[in-house]
Amino acid sequence: AVERTFSIVKPDAVAANNIGEIYSRFENNGLRIVAAKMMQLTKEKAEGFYAEHSERGFFNDLISFMTSGPVMVQVLEGEGAVMKNRDLMGATNPKDAAPGTIRADFATSIDENAAHGSDSAESAAREIAYFFSDAEICDRIR
Ligand code: CMP
């Protein structure tokens, strides 16, 4: 089914000028960008987004990295978009990411791993609503 997922091009990939390369991966693989913006995350915004990880040992490093520079946030739409985007990104740790995936090609470490993507339809709905109002999401089906 056609569905939506949420994606972040993280500060490392923005700083390395890889926004376009990563957007091309989406567009060349059946995903449409239906909302997008560049923003600098505040500590509060990042902590809210990653609240489920707040007890993890990597949490403080994650928040300081995600607030270290601008990110691109986007909503991707297409057939099986949640899994498609996760396949395109590859494993969380670029050391484990399959060749040709976004993380294999653009990430340097598990902390600075170039991209985030929702892990389920439920997460996608929550994450999209955390960053975008309904009016900011464009209907591109017709
Ligand atoms: P992301 O999909 O944005 O979700 C949480 C992030 O925490 C993850 O990508 C990684 O960049 C980062 N992270 C750092 N260490 C770990 C770890 N051990 N397990 C999972 N995520 C980690």
UniProtKB/TrEMBL annotation:
Residue numbers binding ATP: K10, F58, R86, T92, R103, N113
Top enzyme class: transferase
Reactions mediated catalytically: a ribonucleoside 5'-diphosphate + ATP = a ribonucleoside 5'-triphosphate + ADP; a 2'-deoxyribonucleoside 5'-diphosphate + ATP = a 2'-deoxyribonucleoside 5'-triphosphate + ADP
GO CC, any one term: cytoplasm
This protein's UniProt keywords: ATP-binding, Cytoplasm, Kinase, Magnesium, Metal-binding, Nucleotide metabolism, Nucleotide-binding, Phosphoprotein, Transferase
SMART domains in the cross-refs: NDK (SM00562)
Entries under CDD domains matching the protein: NDPk_I (cd04413)
GO BP terms: CTP biosynthetic process; GTP biosynthetic process; UTP biosynthetic process
Function (record text): Major role in the synthesis of nucleoside triphosphates other than ATP. The ATP gamma phosphate is transferred to the NDP beta phosphate via a ping-pong mechanism, using a phosphorylated active-site intermediate.
Stated family: Belongs to the NDK family.
The protein's name: Nucleoside diphosphate kinase
Species: Methyloprofundus sedimenti
